[in-house]
Automatic annotation (TrEMBL):
Signal peptide: 1-20
Name listed for the protein in its UniProt record: Tripartite tricarboxylate transporter family receptor
Classification via InterPro entries: BUG, Bug_dom1
Keyword Signal: yes
Keywords: Receptor, Signal
Classification via Gene3D superfamilies: Bordetella uptake gene, domain 1, Periplasmic binding protein-like II
Organism: Martelella mediterranea DSM 17316
Organism classification: Bacteria, Pseudomonadati, Pseudomonadota, Alphaproteobacteria, Hyphomicrobiales
UniProt-listed Pfam families: TctC (PF03401)
Family: Belongs to the UPF0065 (bug) family.
Length: 318
């Protein structure tokens, strides 16, 4: 028995030491959307700071796995080994709506939410050459030309898509949905005149607004985001629509507690780093940190909301 106890103690020390050395090889960070989009920019801006606070010469490699509204990347993340060497950005509502609207190879329970980083309101935008410069003009045009206003999003059940559906319900107009793999593709499509309107997050729109490439009609926030203080909310304009995307760090389910704690602490320190906050401001990132406990609670609450919405108004059929 004494020998067994000694052996168990040595094994426990060995496991503890192994975890204490984490990370001892590169960490893959999966981004479920195309390069150049808002999530990709956030990932590449944040990754060096997570490396800094993980220490031990940590290295994070950002891998873009776009497609199916995020399902490809979310699935790969969920099915990876829970050892801390595969993490990724998890985005609402796609993370939650995909398993609701179709059979998916992952679920919220197959992931470990570590920390939320961004909460980004949606926005509608048009080319400056368009005759549509306001929500009222959009409504008037769409009523005169039902189904002719094409709009790009990151896919069925995305926040971009749900926000447009909510706008249709509130105003009685009919728009035409064109899904794309990521926001960078939506941006390219609207700037190239392939779709009339971009339904994108405000942080991914505001740089083009400042440069005169796009005209934004409003942001779907409860209050104006401080990165776009001159852009009125939809609510201010008489349309009570609040929709956006939370973007946080997740890992596969069953992640060891000590590795989860180390990652959570590193993300928190990274988000609070003044240098990162300055870079985030330059990149128009709408920061909104939540620790693991609060992030999980928010995701569970949102999941219940979307499940109830699906029962009454299944968006994929619209």
């Amino acid at each position: 028995m004494k020998t067994l106890a000694i052996a168990s103690a040595i094994l426990a020390l060995g496991i503890s030491a192994a975890h204490a050395e984490y990370p001892d090889r590169p960490i893959n960070m999966i981004v479920s959307y195309s390069a150049g989009g808002g999530t990709d920019i956030a990932a590449r801006t944040l990754a060096p700071f997570i490396e800094k606070y993980l220490g031990d010469d940590a290295s994070i490699v950002v891998l873009n796995k776009p497609g199916a509204g995020g399902e490809i990347g979310f699935t790969e993340l969920a099915q990876s080994k829970p050892d801390g060497y595969t993490i990724g950005f998890i985005n609402t509502p796609n993370l939650l709506t995909i398993p609701i609207q179709r059979k998916a190879r992952y679920s919220l329970e197959s992931l470990t939410p570590i920390a939320n980083v961004i909460d980004d309101p949606d926005a509608f935008s048009f080319l400056p050459s368009s005759n549509i410069k306001s929500l009222e003009e959009l409504i008037a045009y769409a009523k005169e030309h039902p189904g002719e206003v094409t709009y790009g999003t990151t896919g069925l059940g995305s926040d971009d898509h749900l926000s447009a559906l909510e706008f249709e319900r509130k105003t009685g107009v009919k728009l035409k949905h064109i899904p794309f793999p990521g926001n960078a593709d939506v941006r390219t499509a609207v700037l190239g005149g392939h779709v009339m309107m971009a339904s994108m997050n405000i942080s991914e729109t505001i740089a083009d607004v400042h440069e005169g490439n796009l005209v934004v009609l409003g942001q779907m926030a409860a209050e104006r985001w401080d990165g776009a203080p001159d852009v009125p909310t939809f609510r201010e304009q008489g349309y009570d629509i609040i929709m956006g995307s939370m973007r946080g760090i997740g890992a596969p389910a069953n992640l060891p507690d000590d590795i989860k704690a180390k990652l959570e602490a590193a993300v928190k320190a990274a988000v609070e780093d003044p240098e990162f906050q300055e870079k985030a401001k330059q990149q128009h990132l709408a920061l909104s940190y939540l620790d693991s406990k609060d992030f999980i609670a928010e995701l569970q609450s949102l999941n219940a909301t979307f499940e109830e919405l699906w029962k009454t108004e299944p968006w994929v059929q619209q």
